[in-house]
Design goal:
Elements (H helix, E strand, L loop, with lengths): L2 H30 L5 H34 L4 H30 L6 H37 L2 H11 L16 H10 L6 H7 L8
Length: about 210
């Protein structure tokens, strides 16, 4: 497998683990009728904003997708949708970060329960749409890339994609993100932690 494709699949795997852990955390807090863990949710949303949105998506939309478009017009409609998803997803996570902050600051307000219900619904919707986005990339876009890109294309892409690696993968990542990585892993309570979610996805990681 080309390193570019391996990087994308690895990063999709850990992002899926984070997204599913958010949904699990919200569901469990609702089931137990306890307050949301704002610290953990802030850390996970910050991670999504800082790496998948700003780095992972940028590599796809600015490097991989243009090369596919140069070689074939077969996937134009799918690539248009994926690029639009990237733009919409970045706006959505910023709104979720703001909504979470408002929920925390207004925890004693009369409409706090309604705010929480609205946040949970929006967050679950975001998770669902993000997971579908990654599924579409892996089912439609990555196989197309394998068919239409040449050796020179892959050499350039592989060099670029091996930089700024996601620290939540088991391979070497960007050291600047490692403190955040450790914070997320160490603060999530079992069985909602990233450990079980990542093990289910057959992804290894290090705590230290």
């Amino acid at each position: 497998m080309h390193p570019t494709l391996r990087v994308i699949r690895d990063e999709h795997g850990v992002l899926s683990a984070v997204l599913r852990s958010i949904s699990l955390l919200l569901t469990e807090c609702r089931r137990r009728q306890i307050q949301l863990d704002f610290t953990v949710l802030r850390a996970m949303l910050f991670y999504i904003d800082e790496f998948p949105e700003k780095v992972h998506h940028t590599k796809e939309s600015e490097l991989l997708f243009p090369k596919i478009r140069e070689r074939s017009d077969e996937g134009a409609a799918v690539l248009d949708r994926l690029d639009a998803d990237h733009a919409a997803s970045h706006r959505a996570v910023l709104e979720l970060e703001h909504d979470l902050l408002a929920l925390e600051m207004m925890a004693d307000a009369a409409d706090a329960d309604a705010r929480r219900v609205a946040f949970e619904a929006k967050m679950h919707g975001y998770v669902t749409s993000y997971l579908e986005h990654m599924r579409l990339e892996e089912v439609e876009m990555l196989p197309l890339a394998e068919r239409v890109l040449g050796a020179g294309d892959w050499a350039a892409l592989d060099a670029a994609f091996m930089k700024n690696r996601d620290p939540l993968t088991h391979r070497e990542g960007d050291d600047a993100f490692r403190p955040l990585f450790k914070k997320i892993l160490m603060t999530l309570p079992a069985p909602l932690g990233l450990g079980p979610a990542m093990e289910a996805l057959d992804i290894s990681y290090k705590r230290g």
